């Protein structure tokens, strides 16, 4: 089971209740709003003299338009290509020079940049990050080199990876209107036809303090951090952001299916159902919390239901995974993915999955099972509370989905109230054929490696 950030948050906060009761003070978190619209969130953690500095832009692949898919990710690459003050390639060198590590990542919902340094070097990296928020300056030659890097990334991670190809086709089939149907890396044809001006336009449109959240976590004083942020980010001018179109996904009216033929050793099956996500301002909605717990019932530990039945008992698949994100900006899927065991068919795996789901819908789960799942997740995830970077990630990803970091405590309380009957109810309500998309990987023989003799 993929453990998403909010699920980790629930576990950490659940554990924190016991820590606080024992006399340990919770981490202090302070929020500020600058005049130019930039939000600053400071999480104090004085256990080590380090600090994580992150800048989150609420602009990801879901904000792209047809013909320019992948531009959010391309711009992430170009952000390292220099400003008037910092030459191309110098950003990473300067961070390394102060003993720090840095990187960036693009998501469907956001793009984020981070550095982790010794606390006395915070101003150094903050100055660099603020500079490229408003002064990015790359030439066409740099763009032409980097777009080739991105296309090669797509070839390696998607086109040469059967699982990635299957997931890409699943998303494009499941969604009709939502931009979630496009891959974050972009379609190859769009990358081949992308211009430097496309990346510059994306930067000019979305990279502004009024579309950014700065998260600083670690051994810091909030007032000192605020002073530094006002110094470096405060002078950056705000501007009007592009209009965001809702692009509401229309209701699905029946099963969708897609088949992908690609070189692979085994067939794969993915079944994905349309399900609700938690929405800002509607924190009391029960179903998203119950769906989160349903993922753990099915695939939350080694002897969870699907692994026990499909892998250990029936031996119809080599592996099985369940995926659901309760918190996101766009529509969500409840996904079950499997890889066939040798000699087994996709039809057998689908029948086994359906039988396991029907058993759960009919018989439900025990209260003791649900409690055991919570304790198991707790024991597996608690160590992550020691990560300063993980705390910054938790805050930023929650904010980007439209929630506040302040909501997490309430979400936890709500999660603890979910009953076995409510978990059973969401399985009955949403895991039905009307909202189902099935993707099948039909494995093709791999081409023999070309002989190097005579070359």
Would you kindly provide a written description of the structure presented here, covering whatever features stand out?
The protein has 455 residues and is α+β, with helices and mostly antiparallel strands. The protein folds into two domains: 5-232, 2-Layer Sandwich (Cytochrome Bc1 Complex, Chain A, domain 1); 256-443, Cytochrome Bc1 Complex, Chain A, domain 1 (2-Layer Sandwich), CATH 3.30.830. It has helices at 5-21, 71-78, 90-97, 122-134, 140-159, 162-174, 188-192, 196-206, 222-232, 286-299, 305-313, 346-363, 367-381, 388-400, 408-416, 420-430; strands at residues 29-33, 39-44, 50-57, 101-106, 111-118, 212-218, 256-263, 268-275, 317-323, 332-340, 436-444. Strand 4 (101-106) and strand 5 (111-118) form a beta hairpin. The longest helix has 20 residues, at 140-159. It is globular. The relative contact order is 0.18. It holds the Pfam family Peptidase_M16. Its cofactor is Zn(2+). One of its GO terms (molecular function) is metalloendopeptidase activity. This is Peptidase M16 domain protein.
Topology:
Blueprint: H1 5-21, E1 29-33, E2 39-44, E3 50-57, H2 71-78, H3 90-97, E4 101-106, E5 111-118, H4 122-134, H5 140-159, H6 162-174, H7 188-192, H8 196-206, E6 212-218, H9 222-232, E7 256-263, E8 268-275, H10 286-299, H11 305-313, E9 317-323, E10 332-340, H12 346-363, H13 367-381, H14 388-400, H15 408-416, H16 420-430, E11 436-444
Parallel strand pairs: 2-6, 7-11
Antiparallel strand pairs: 1-2, 3-5, 3-6, 4-5, 8-10, 8-11, 9-10
């Amino acid at each position: 089971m993929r453990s998403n950030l909010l699920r980790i948050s629930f576990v950490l906060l659940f554990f924190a209740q016991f820590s606080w009761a024992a006399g340990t003070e919770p981490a202090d978190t302070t929020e500020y709003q600058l005049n130019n619209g930039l939000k600053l969130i400071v999480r104090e953690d004085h256990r080590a003299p380090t600090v994580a500095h992150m800048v989150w832009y609420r602009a990801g692949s879901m904000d792209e338009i047809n013909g320019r898919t992948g531009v959010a990710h391309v711009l992430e690459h170009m952000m390292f290509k220099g400003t008037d003050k910092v030459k191309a390639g110098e950003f990473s060198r300067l961070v390394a020079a102060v003993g720090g590590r840095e990187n960036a990542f693009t998501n469907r919902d956001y793009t984020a940049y981070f550095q982790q340094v010794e606390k006395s070097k915070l101003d150094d990296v903050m100055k660099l990050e603020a500079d490229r928020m408003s002064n990015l300056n790359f030439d066409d030659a740099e763009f032409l080199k980097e777009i080739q890097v991105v296309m090669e990334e797509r070839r390696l991670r998607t086109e040469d990876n059967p699982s990635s190809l299957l997931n890409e086709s699943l998303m494009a089939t499941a969604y009709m209107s939502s931009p979630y149907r496009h891959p974050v890396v972009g379609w190859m044809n769009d990358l081949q036809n992308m211009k430097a001006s496309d990346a510059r336009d994306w930067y000019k449109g979305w990279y502004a303090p009024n579309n950014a959240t700065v998260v600083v976590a670690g051994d810091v004083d909030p007032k000192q951090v605020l002073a530094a942020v006002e110094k470096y980010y405060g002078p950056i001018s705000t501007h009007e952001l592009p209009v965001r179109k809702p692009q509401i996904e229309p209701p699905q009216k029946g099963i969708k299916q897609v088949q992908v033929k690609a070189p692979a050793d085994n067939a794969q099956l993915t079944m994905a159902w349309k399900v609700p996500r938690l929405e800002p301002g509607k924190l009391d909605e029960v179903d998203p919390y119950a769906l989160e717990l349903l993922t753990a019932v099915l695939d939350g530990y080694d002897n969870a239901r699907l692994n026990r039945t499909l892998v250990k008992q029936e031996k119809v698949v080599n592996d099985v995974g369940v995926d659901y994100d309760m918190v996101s900006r766009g529509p969500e899927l409840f996904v079950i993915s499997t890889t066939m065991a040798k000699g087994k068919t996709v039809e057998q795996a689908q029948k086994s999955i359906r039988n396991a789901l029907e058993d759960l819908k009919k018989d439900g789960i025990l209260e003791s099972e649900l409690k055991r799942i919570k304790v198991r997740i707790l024991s597996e995830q608690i160590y992550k509370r020691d990560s300063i970077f993980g705390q910054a990630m938790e805050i930023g990803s929650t904010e980007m989905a439209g929630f506040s970091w302040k909501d997490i405590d309430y979400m936890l309380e709500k999660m603890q109230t979910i009953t076995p009957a409510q978990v059973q109810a969401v399985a009955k309500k949403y895991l039905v054929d009307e909202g189902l998309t099935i993707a099948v990987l039909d494995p093709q023989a791999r081409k023999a490696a070309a002989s190097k003799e005579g070359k």
